Structure to design on (258 residues):
DNA sequence: GAAACTTACATGCACGCGCATTGGATGTCA
DNA sequence: TGACATCCAATGCGCGTGCATGTAAGTTTC
């Protein structure tokens, strides 16, 4: 019974790999095609919109980093992209001028809300009932 | 009950993301540090070694591609890397000169066998009992 | 059997990632 | 106060990936 467990971990890993790749590819493609958003970009918007409900969620970079599976540098550039697209604004923090606050712009909020159904649909296709 | 299902798919996806990232990062790091192998490289060796048991498994590129979550171009380059390291050899197929056969070299076989315990250990740490 | 199509693999290219480093701000200790 | 460690974010760099394309070899159609 213990020997069989070896096969199990491989199988579980293969299955995880399959689900991850299928889902992330489709998410990436759909979000890009329909909303001009990468998956990382979307995830940032998602967290920001959760942060402060509606009307401009804000969060520090460090907090975002902790909630995402993205390195500090990758996150920094993702935010740069979002900022360039006008979906997010950076603001220095008064209390700690090393830190940066992020704020969702109205346009960012709008884009996120538009993309959310696409996101859900894809997830439901892969995990749904 | 149906409304809750929406939360479920997100949760399932988050969980998949977490497991995938944690596991693949650790696999990548451990394989690289201990055996100078990337995860993609290892997966190719793994399939090849399964293909024909011991003594030089061989397979066509197309078959490999079908078994991996890797684009055709990425696979081609992965094999180039493996070939450069002497772990694999390319051979043109007599019957179809477009196709390439891949063969595990003794060195490749050895490297794979050495790396396998590392691979298993990591998987067991993440999926085990 | 020649032209049109398809298939297998390699390669140019752009992009996003992680690692390491940098630069500026903050905290600490003597 | 001055020296040093720590922290936050940005950036240089190299790498692996996917997409689009190129090239050569097989297949189909007439």
């Amino acid at each position: 019974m213990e020997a069989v467990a070896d096969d199990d971990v491989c199988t579980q890993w293969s299955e995880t790999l399959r689900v991850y790749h299928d889902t992330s590819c489709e998410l990436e493609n759909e979000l890009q095609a329909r909303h001009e958003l990468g998956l990382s970009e979307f995830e940032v918007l998602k967290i920001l919109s959760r942060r402060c409900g509606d009307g401009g969620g804000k969060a520090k970079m460090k907090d975002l980093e902790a909630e995402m599976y993205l390195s500090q540098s990758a996150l920094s550039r993702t935010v740069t992209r979002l900022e360039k697209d006008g979906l997010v604004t950076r603001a220095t923090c008064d209390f700690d001028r090393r830190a940066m606050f992020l704020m969702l712009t109205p346009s960012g909020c709008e884009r996120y809300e538009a993309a959310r159904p696409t996101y859900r649909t894809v997830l439901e296709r892969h995990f749904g009932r």
